[in-house]
Every structure is written in structure tokens, then in C-alpha cells.
Amino acid sequence: MLDAMDLLRSNLSRVRIPEPTNRIYKQECCVSFDTPRSDGGLFVDMSTFLAFGKDHVGWNYEKSGNPVYLHIKQTKVLVPEDRPLKKPTLMAIGVDGGFDNNEPEYEETHSIVLLPDYVTLPFPSVELPEKVRLAVDSILMAEGAEKKEQLAAWTADKKQTSVYAMNLQQIDNGIVVPSSGWKCTKCDKRDNLWMNLTDGTILCGRKNWDGTGGNNHAIEHYKDTGFPLAVKLGTITADLEAADVFSYPEDDSVLDPLLAQHLAFFGIDFSSLQKTEMTTAERELDQNTNFDWNRIQESGQEVEPIFGPGYTGLVNLGNSCYMAATMQVVFSTHSFYSRYYKNQSLKTAFEKAPADPTVDLNMQLTKLGHGLLSGKYSVPVSEEKDQTNSITPTTNSKQDGIPPRMFKAVIAASHPEFSSMRQQDALEFFLHFLDQVERAHGGSPEIDPARSFKFGIEDRILCSSGKVAYNRRLDYILSLNIPLHEATNKVELAAFQKLKAEKISEGKEVSNDEIVRPRVPLEACLASFSSPEEIQDFYSTALKAKTTAVKSAGLTSFPDYLVLHMRKFVMEAGWVPKKLDVYIDVPDIIDISHMRSKGLQHGEELLPESVPGEEEEPTKPVADENIVTQLFSMGFSHLYCQKAAINTSNVGVEEAMNWLLSHMDDPDMDAPISQGRQIAVDQSKVDTLISFGFQEDIARAALKASGGDIEKATDWIFNNPDASVSTDMDATSSETIPTAAEAGLPDGGGRYRLIGIVSHIGTSTLCGHYVAHIFKDGRWVIFNDAKVGASVNPPKDMGYLYFFERLNS
């Protein structure tokens, strides 16, 4: 029988020395959330550099045949209780100057383990073959794949020199700025003050999403004058590079190489100033380290922590609360619970996965499902303190939670925004997630859990001729307008508006306790969805002319889980986005039976199909000849130029050129221009634009004009505020979308029970914070990233997304 060293030498061909391009996993198991700190440590495959926990490394040996592993084990080291807390100076984790948070220290040990018998050899050891020593050293010295993503995510971008700094024009208006005693020239603010480097005006900074900060006077001054740079007073010291200079056109903190000269212009001697204010980066750090989660949703109530199966928190990876809140609610549904936990083991998912399980959606969803639902990682943190050389274990009232890094990397692979560390819209993420799950089940739709959210919508269009058309589509969410005129507290609102006017006239601010917000019943929002809507300039194939029609909507099926999206973000005049400060009164049980579409009724007559040539003049798309001529002069064929202009709705030459260059290889580019052609639009992209506050018809028109690109569609809307979409409603009869029954979607009664809420705090879906509340085991539970507790006062009236489960009666 071979001894341990001989056994290792006989398997040297299965050992690889990693190259710089290899991804090395050594901080987290690929199929679970085990780490080197777990009881069994972590085993790194020395051929593939994938990591596995003690319960899963055997599966990898069976699948790959790789027998040689580097075992990494970290053991907690006792730290003096009075160890000083290091204050972070960099928006980073795990790097010098980054977050410390007084985490415990660990001692790391290594060994070589040979499977299947777990034969162990110590490391370091001069007796080990050189190839093994080199491989282990390379693995230990390399930056782990998980850590690389983490550092890239959290390390703030290095400030760049402003393009406006070198040629900044300064106005000699006699202003001399004193060394102290500053005040905003437009209000009484004496902190968070910014001096414009062009005219020396001192104004307050932006108002934060939580109500703190300034009154936006500095940025309003920039909008009025166009003066680009401002420096934050109180951050100026002899170290001018540390001063906080902000560029409004570049929308970022910048460097000003001539700052000393620019300050001297207004009589400021920077060498005599002392730092009294946080820089923007420091304030960002302060907000991240002092985040008060009770203030966001639970009104300062003491929340009792909950542990066990189904009560596992998710670590915030950096502005990932949108993902954490959404996935907690998703995995509280029976469909996802069954698909990725009850009916699929980790081993089964691993056996089905490709060679690299970290890039497999099924594997990472199963890993996430087992991590959230098994209860293995939902345990109180145990702390050990060094007190007179004795170990005193104490139980903390919090849990560590699990970091969904690998899941995020997989789900974000096809969506660059979700791979960034910027805050994202929870609705957009939810739709993208369900789309990816549906795609993954393309060959087996019967087990697709995303179908439990899907339902059919039918639009009924009544022409003035008395004839009708029906258009069908499928969707995952029901997006609802909020009719403020249906508020139930109009008397209180009127009194508040009067009080507010009086306070403003007296130069006073309204306190938070005095604010009265509209209260709108959910029933009114649902009624608004179904209520008839007038369509102007509808082309009727019955009248062969444009007329007025009435559109109403209904559901063709009721899903297992109904998700209601509240359109709290709307566009004001001038396309300025605004968040509605409103409460929605949401009951625990709703009945939407009355919203079921009845389809074509007895006695109704469908609008006739269009006859080729009959309506050529009214419906034939017409290209702008000016655009066509300019494109034609560039050498493109006349037909191509016409199609480019038509498909971009004659917006302009640049848009038409971009469309043309991206569609040159289309198989139908040489086909004649069709009449009344309908362009297919991805409904999930329509929903995304709706979540930005745009009307659905405008969103559809914009996507058609931009070839389905959301960013270009948004630009199109802003550039065409008067755009009419009535010509897109020239429908004649039902679209070819299959009915809910034909699509095999779930259906049932219309009574639903509220089971989940995703709430949002902030002025935009792309900033602020998301929190989930879920009804579990007869009580409401709050999921705030890694914190999980019994909810004292669930914010049923503050939801952004509401999740309802159908009641089977």
C-alpha cells in the first residue's frame, strides 16, 4: 500500500500551477455558503481551483476524479475586548483604509488532502513535491475570485481632474470669503455649504433622500448660471487634494489642480483653514457605517431577531438591497421553494451543472434556495471575548447572513447594470430575474417556477363604429397608476396645505409630524387599471378613417402569485421625475374577480382585417425626405434610408444612422416597406419604462423607435415630449399572442392574500434603500439585508411592490 507521499506523487498529473488568468475560489464553496471558517474548512481542487465545503468535496471527486485538494481552515483568535476601532478612510472592504467594523481575527492553517480516503499531508513542508509547493503558494498568494469582485465593487473610483478646472473663468465681483462664519445666501443653513468657484457664491448642498443635508441651493445655482465647479467649505486645509471639489456637469467629485489659485481669487488663504466638514466620500462612508434601519421602516421599534429555516438574511454586497429584498419574497413562494429546495438537492444540481458550477443559474439558485431555507446559516453569532485569559462565549442577537455573490454574478451576466455596485430598481431586477428563469426552462416549461407569476392581459378597443378589437399580451406584474383624486383624507389634506402655506409665508419649515400624505385605497388603483380610456386618432378599418375609440383592460387569467407595482414615480411638466409622497391602503385580502376579461361577447362585431391596398394612404409609414436625402448622400440605398427613418419615427439623422448600421445584416432589409407594419416589443422592457413613470403607450412607441434599446428609448421620449402614439393603436382584431390557456399558464379564482411587500425609501428607484416584509408562520417578518426580525409595524401602506398569493377556495 502506498504511503501518503507516494500517493501524492502518483497524482501529480492532477495538480496544476495556476496562471494569472485563472479564477481561484478559496473563500466560499461553489455549491454552498461554507467558508474556511466553517467547521470542516474549505477544500480547493488543485486542478480546477474550485472550492468545496466538507460535505460537498466528495461530490466533486466523484464527478471530476480530481483527488488532490488544498484544505484551508480558519480559527478565531482571541482579541482584547478594548481593541480600538479603526475608522475607515476608503469606501472599500478588506483593503488598507477600508471598513474594519472590529471583526474578529482568524488564524489560517493549510494542509494537502487526498481523496477518497482524506489522506492528509501538512503544509508547508519541504518534503512535498516542488510542483505542489508552487501550486499551493500560487493559490494562497493569488487574489481570490470572490475577493476580486468584492474589492472591485466597493473601492470607490479615483477622482479625475475636471475638464473645467484649467480654463475656469472667475468673476471679479468684489466678494471676499471670510475664514469662518459661513451661511447659505438663500437660507439659514450653516453646514454642508459649497462655494461656487466662478462667482464665489456660498450655497447649501443637496437634500438627501432621508431629509437630511441642504436645500439644493448650490445645484440650483449651477442650473441657473452654468458655473461648473464648487468647493465644499470646511474641507479646505493645507492638503488641497483632500478638499472636496464637485463638478456639476461631470456629476462627480473631481480634482482641481489650480484650486489654490481659484481660492486666492476670493481672498481664501487655504494654509490657515482647519477641516470642519466631511468630504462627500467621508459622508458616504458615514452613511454606510451608521445606517439606521429602524428609521427606514419600523419607526424605531425594537425588533425581535428570528432564526431558523426560512429566516436567513442576505449580506449587502454594496447597494444590493434591491436584490436581497426581491429574492427573499421570491423564495417565500411555493413555486420557488419547491423548484430549488424541496424538489432539488444540492447534489442533484451539482451533478447537472457544467464543469464550472459558479456560472450555472440552476446551481446558484439551488445554492441560494438551500442557503435561505435550510436554516443552516440562520444562527446567532457566537462571540468570544478575552477576559483575564478565559474564554467567555456570548450569544449575539444577530446573524451573519449569507453573501449571494455567485448568484449575483450569474444573474447579472446578461445585464451590465446589475453587475455594478450602483443601486438598481427592484422592479427591473424582478422582471429580469423571471425572464432569465423562464429562458433557463425553455425545454421544460412545466417545471418553470416563473410561470406562477405570469398572466394574460386583454385590451378591448371599442371603435366609434360600434365594432371592437381585442389585443392580448402576457405579463409578470400588474402596474397600477395611483389616482390621487381618490384620496380618502381630502379634508385633512386641505388643512395641511393651508398650514404649509402659512408656515412658508412665515419663513418656517413644516415638521415631519405635521406632514399629511394622501391616502388612496388599493381598490381605486385597481379600478383605474380597468377603467375605460379614450384614444384619439384611432384608425378604424370599419370607417376607413381616424376616429375616437375607447380602450379598457382586463385579465385573461389569474396567476398563482399576483405582483402589483405601484407607479409612485411619475413625470411632471418638462419630463422631471417625481416620487409621489402617498400612502396606499392595502387590505390583507383582495378580490379581483371583476377584472377578468370576458373576451368577444355575443352580438359584438370585430373590426375588419385591413385589406392590402385599401388603406394604403392612411397607414403607409412615410419617411422624412430630409433624413432620407442625407443618408442617401452617404452612399446607402434609398430603400435602406427610408426604413431607417421610418423605424426611428423620423426623429433625426443620427438616430436613423445608428439604426441603419445595426440592422444592415437583417434578412428582410431588401424587402419592400410593408404597410401598417407592427413591430414586436418586449413587454418586460415596456414594464421597465413604465416603472420610470412613462405611460405605457409612450413606452411602446419609444421602444419601437429605438429598436428595443431601453436607454435609447428613454432618450427618444425626452427628445419627443409631444410624441403621439395614436397611430400605434390602429388595431383591427386580436393579436396572435396565445391565450393564457393556450400558453399553459396557471389560472383560478380572483381572491388573493397579501404575503409580501418590497418597500422603498428614497427619491428615486436608483437610490435609497429597499426592505422586504413577508408574512411567515402567521406573523409579519422584516428582512433588511442580513437582519431578520419579527415586524412590529409592517408598512403595508408604503409598498413599492406588493406580492399576493391566490386563495384556493
From TrEMBL:
GO terms for molecular function: cysteine-type deubiquitinase activity; zinc ion binding. Zn(2+) binds at residues 184, 187, 204, 217. Gene3D superfamilies: Cysteine proteinases, DNA helicase RuvA subunit, C-terminal domain, Zinc/RING finger domain, C3HC4 (zinc finger). Keywords: Hydrolase, Metal-binding, Protease, Repeat, Thiol protease, Ubl conjugation pathway, Zinc, Zinc-finger. The active site is at 321 (nucleophile), 769 (proton acceptor). CDD domains: Peptidase_C19B (cd02658), UBA1_atUBP14 (cd14295), UBA2_atUBP14 (cd14388). It is an enzyme of class 3 (hydrolase). Residues 622-663, 680-720 form the UBA domain. Transmembrane segments: none annotated. Residues 312-807 form the USP domain. Residues 160-270 form the UBP-type domain. It comes from the Eukaryota. Pfam families: UBA, UCH, zf-UBP, zf-UBP_var. GO terms for biological process: cell communication; protein deubiquitination; proteolysis; signaling. It catalyses: Thiol-dependent hydrolysis of ester, thioester, amide, peptide and isopeptide bonds formed by the C-terminal Gly of ubiquitin (a 76-residue protein attached to proteins as an intracellular targeting signal). InterPro entries: Papain-like_cys_pep_sf, Peptidase_C19_UCH, Ub_carboxyl-term_hydrolase, UBA, UBA-like_sf, Ubiquitinyl_hydrolase, UBP13_Znf-UBP_var, USP. Belongs to the peptidase C19 family. Recognizes and hydrolyzes the peptide bond at the C-terminal Gly of ubiquitin. Involved in the processing of poly-ubiquitin precursors as well as that of ubiquitinated proteins. This is Ubiquitin carboxyl-terminal hydrolase. The lineage of its organism: Eukaryota, Viridiplantae, Streptophyta, Embryophyta, Tracheophyta.
